[in-house]
Design goal:
Elements (H helix, E strand, L loop, with lengths): L1 H18 L9 H9 L2 E4 L10 E2 L5 E2 L1 H14 L5 E4 L6 H7 L13 H6 L2 E3 L4 E3 L1 E6 L13 E6 L3 H12 L4 E6 L2 H9 L5 E5 H10 L7 E3 L7 E3 L2 E3 L3 H19 L7 H6 L4 H6 L16 H9 L2 H8 L29
Parallel strand pairs: 1-4, 8-9, 8-10
Antiparallel strand pairs: 2-3, 5-13, 6-12, 7-10, 7-11
């Protein structure tokens, strides 16, 4: 009996040891390097990739990915202006990360097994899901691909998009004519000349086309169907899991802020009287969010004050407050019909 009690007591002590969190996390080596340098090196683009990484007429960087880099910079250094954007081509981004020319890649980068296992990369939580969609002439009065029965779809020849569209329309039993074009310029011209009812492409690119090359953008509708989906995530070098934690909780904090109605305009007011324990932890009123990442307790509050929550970042770069008017769709919160969610902040 005594042995049994002694064993039970030992298990109870072990359980307490396992359940009790460390008082503070070790600081990420990458974060330490960023702090020592005083700037955050973020991936840019050699030109503009509209909606994500672009340069405006004042030669200033903007876009969804740029704002996420600035959010991360604020989380680590307390100032979004300490983000240094390094112009990179698509081919240059991974070598630049491996060589240390950038600290992180946040640049419309798909999370794939090859990149994960063969290039020595680690990926964050997905922050965007982009895939093949269809845009149709508004005069057709349709919102869904099922209404394309008997219609014509323009697509670029030899691409995965061509196969994805054919398979999808076959699956939903929509009879259609597929017209393929070898050159992207010919494809755009054919659609704009009404030689086809719908245009197939990557959703964000369709939104950019509608906003920049069509005289009356409102007369064209991006259909509700999501024919495929590619998870877009931040990429980091393998070997610094603490930095992966920082990037993941930066993204999580932006989503939690949206979920709880914490915005750039009201963050300080909400911090003064948090409505619930999660928001109190998020804004550093209840300690833990900084200590466990090796950051300041107020890093998320400062970040939201600088960039806004995830909805604000999305809306001004891709959504309703941008020229592109791309609906959130899958990129909405799980509670609003999308697939984006934050881990539990306990």
């Amino acid at each position: 009996m005594k042995q049994h009690l002694k064993k039970m007591a030992g298990l109870a002590v072990l359980a307490c040891m396992v359940a009790t969190p460390q008082s503070a996390a070790a600081k990420s080596a990458t974060v330490q390097k960023i702090e020592d340098r005083g700037t955050m090196l973020c991936s840019g683009h050699n030109g503009s990739y509209f909606g994500f990484v672009e340069v405006n007429d004042k030669n200033e960087w903007k876009g969804l990915d740029i704002d996420l880099c600035r959010a991360l910079t604020t989380a680590i250094l307390g100032d979004p202006d300490k983000a240094q954007i390094v112009p990179l081509s698509w081919a240059q981004r991974f070598p630049a990360l491996q060589s240390g020319d950038v600290d992180v890649i946040i640049k419309a980068t798909g999370w794939t097994m090859g990149r994960d296992t063969e290039l020595g990369l680690q990926f964050s939580l997905p922050y965007f899901f982009g895939g093949t969609q269809l845009m149709a002439h508004g005069e057709l009065g349709i919102s869904d691909a099922k209404d394309l029965e008997g219609g014509t779809v323009c697509v670029e020849a030899g691409t995965t998009i061509e196969r994805i569209v054919a398979d999808y329309l076959k699956t939903i039993n929509v009879q259609h004519e597929m017209v393929s074009y070898e050159k992207a310029a010919e494809l755009r011209s054919a659609y704009l000349a009404n030689r086809c009812d719908a245009f197939a492409g990557w959703g964000p690119n369709l939104a950019v086309l509608r906003a920049t090359e069509i005289e009356n953008p409102e007369s064209h509708k991006i259909l509700n169907d999501q024919l495929s989906s590619e998870p877009i995530a931040a990429a980091m070098r393998q070997g610094d899991e603490d930095f992966v934690d920082v990037v993941n909780w930066m993204l999580a904090a932006l989503l939690l802020a949206e979920e709880h109605g914490v915005t750039k305009a009201n963050v300080e007011e909400v911090a003064a009287t948090p409505p619930n324990p999660t928001v109190a932890r998020l804004l550093g009123v209840t300690p833990g969010i900084g200590e466990r990442l090796g950051l300041r307790e107020t890093w998320a509050r400062e970040m939201i004050a600088a960039t806004g929550n995830f909805a604000e970042i999305y809306d001004r770069n891709l959504g309703k407050d941008s020229p592109y008017k791309l609906d959130r769709g899958l990129n909405n919160l799980w509670s609003h019909g999308g697939v984006l969610y934050a881990p539990i902040l306990d």
